[in-house]
Amino acid sequence: MDGTFSENDLSRVVAADKAHVWHHLSQHKPYETSDPRIMVEGKGMKVWDQHGKEHLDGVSGGVWTVNVGYGRESIANAVRDQLVKLNYFAGSAGSIPGALFSEKLISKMPGLSRVYYANSGSEANEKAFKMVRQIAHKRYGGTKHKILYRDRDYHGTTIGCLSAGGQEERNAQYGPFAPGFVRVPHCLEYHAADQGAPVENYGEWAADQIEQVILREGPDTVGALCLEPVTAGGGVITPPIGYWQRVSEICKKYDILLHIDEVVCGVGRTGTWFGYQHYGIQPDMVTMAKGVASGYAAISCLVTTEEVFNLFKSDASDPLDYFRDISTFGGCTSGPAAALENMRIIEDEGLLENTTKMGDYMLDQLRGMMDRHAIIGDVRGKGLFLGAELVSDRDSRTPAAEKQVGAVVADCMAQGVIIGATNRSVPGYNNTLCFSPALIAKKDNIDHILSAVDSALTRVFG
């Protein structure tokens, strides 16, 4: 750290934090006798806390967000310059960065054409759900309104998004939920036996389970299918061979909109601009947030095809015949200004290529680690978005205890390396270590992360 804050200044900050800040995803009872961690500075892939301790960040800001790393002056300058010129105007009007970023974004998404701005992934997904419902009323008399979502997927924190949430522990105590959301099975091949699934052609089998749900509900009642391209917080679940192609066929067969939630995977995380682009499919709607501006400004986007957009255009006299929605802070110009510079950095520095190269290296090294640690049952992922599932027994694939998994994360933190893990999400299956280092990661960064994990596994499990 550069010492900008004195020890007395930081003591005041800690005291203020303990007295007034309500932290995300945190039980605050322990803070009665200990201090919360406060991050003070970041540069590249490193962050420093209030004690001056350096940490190598293996999860890009804790929630898969800071894709191009910390301390990017060019993004900060782009935001500063735009704020001085025009900081905000409601999204019912346009802005220069909003127009230019939409053009740039669409150039990376063939087959899609329209960008709706909001300020969080949850909000972007809510917009998509509202569009599906309004289309149902406009075209189908309200009947084709159901939205299918997948077990273990996660789409946000609002009541609407939790209604489409496949993680029971995230949803617990927040019901009752909105009607019209229907769950379909997960596609985790490693636990195919839990589903009574065949070993061969599992991907097609898993997709066919979606069709069975559609037939049970009635195809004329189902408006959209919302899926993550790679399940994130539910265990870093990569889709099995044949899955996405069959899913796409099913959606076309029953005239169901395919909504892909790229809030985590989007803008380079998997080595392509968007995760779905690995699988040769064409979505109708794509939502994104987190890495769009790498956390330098709040922004999310819902991107649609021209066909979806045209469903809301009409010469009719009905004053309600358009998408009647607003996101107040979707009108902030800092988001698209930061996103434009973020995308330039990814292009100019070859970060998609680096993500693929470093991701392949990390995946290979994690698989090699399985020879030393029987506790690792499965390793999976795409690009710099990887998971290692821990099991107490490889033959039965019995999940390791969540407390032990948490102990590995804590041990790494003590070593000055930040990793993640599934936690308080899927009952009995919060057993996957999660890795999502910034797209700028180099081999020595990956080796540092893996060395910490190796040591932590030895200490926790022997």
TrEMBL record:
Pfam families recorded: Aminotran_3 (PF00202)
Domain of life, per lineage: Bacteria
Listed Gene3D superfamilies: Aspartate Aminotransferase, domain 1 (3.90.1150.10), Type I PLP-dependent aspartate aminotransferase-like (Major domain) (3.40.640.10)
SUPFAM superfamilies reported for this sequence: PLP-dependent transferases
Cofactor section: pyridoxal 5'-phosphate
GO molecular function list: pyridoxal phosphate binding; transaminase activity
Keywords, alphabetical: Aminotransferase, Pyridoxal phosphate, Pyruvate, Transferase
Record-stated family: Belongs to the class-III pyridoxal-phosphate-dependent aminotransferase family.
Name this polypeptide is given: Taurine-pyruvate aminotransferase
